[in-house]
Amino acid sequence: MSRPHRIAIIGTVGVPANYGGFETLVENLAQFHHDSKAPEKVTVYCSAKAYDTGPDRYLDMDLRYVPLNANGAQSIPYDMWSMLSAVLKGTDTILILGVSGTVILPLIRLISRARIITNIDGIEWKRDKWGGFQRKFLKTSEAIAVKLSHRVIADNGAIADYVRAEYGTDCAVIAYGGDHAVQAEAAPLTEIVPPARYAFNVCRIEPENNVHMMLEAFADNADFPLVCVGNWDRSAYGADLKARYKDAPGLRILDPIYDTGKLKTLRAGSSAYIHGHSAGGTNPSLVEMMHFGVPVFAYDCMFNRHSTDDKALFFSDAADLRAKLANTDPGTLAANGAAMKALAQERYTWAAIGEAYFDLIRTTARA
């Protein structure tokens, strides 16, 4: 009797997920693997620094721990260590999430016959937060990942277009699920008594997410305030915005909320979602919100147009957002919310995403 196909998943903090798009992806892949009784043996590499006690298994997946942080400066050796360990354990397929450690792929391909599948995430090297050296390193890592992986995954059609133009390589386009957000059990809020009518946003507080633009648009809009949740104290950019707008009548600025039940309460009670992301492909926060049937105002960029199938209400700056909020009629808003929900149910469910990942792994193994 032949042994089961061995898969290693590399590049996340680990499971169970606390927060983060890739971590949520892996947690839901684990659930799909369990529910579908998939025959593969899967190992998830986890950061020992992130878990006080590390169980050996999560659902049907084995967990293996690396004594480094998965993020920050240690992310590169963390991913390299994980890949080398997977090779030494006789792994058949290595699923790499992100390109931080892919500079080691020339060695991996030399010493192993494992099939390599890499989700390159967003076009990471273009993000505003990186300096010159980091940009060059990430661009090099991306190029190595595309050229030396047996298959490349893009989470957004715009990223697939970029990879095809830049490297002449086709990508499998597999996004993220968002139905876990609407399936969560709503929980009472202790952080805020929500206004009777409000818009909502949750994101990392970074310039490329255009938080300054959203806050400027809503600052004086006391009749329809924005509830904005994020990690304000992690950067000077966030701290400055929080200090500048803390008393604005049209804003409710909240520190990070990780409880999915509380987030469901805020999402379900909102009258609009404001999505400022300008980079990163398909953003989990957007596809999660689309399941709630709330109208979406999205920053006008190719990623958001792909994610919403050109059906969101797009804005280009604070003045444009203010004008669209004031002038979009109720019928258009209701139709937009219905369109967002229908698209989410068609494209962004974890059952569909899990099936797509395991189908890709199986076809790549047979190629």
UniProtKB/TrEMBL annotation:
One Pfam family of this chain: Glycos_transf_1
Residues covered by the DUF1972 domain: 7-179
GO molecular function per UniProt: glycosyltransferase activity
Domain of life assignment: Bacteria
Domain Glycosyl transferase family: 197-306
Full protein name: DUF1972 domain-containing protein
Source organism per UniProt: Flavimaricola marinus
Origin organism lineage: Bacteria, Pseudomonadati, Pseudomonadota, Alphaproteobacteria, Rhodobacterales
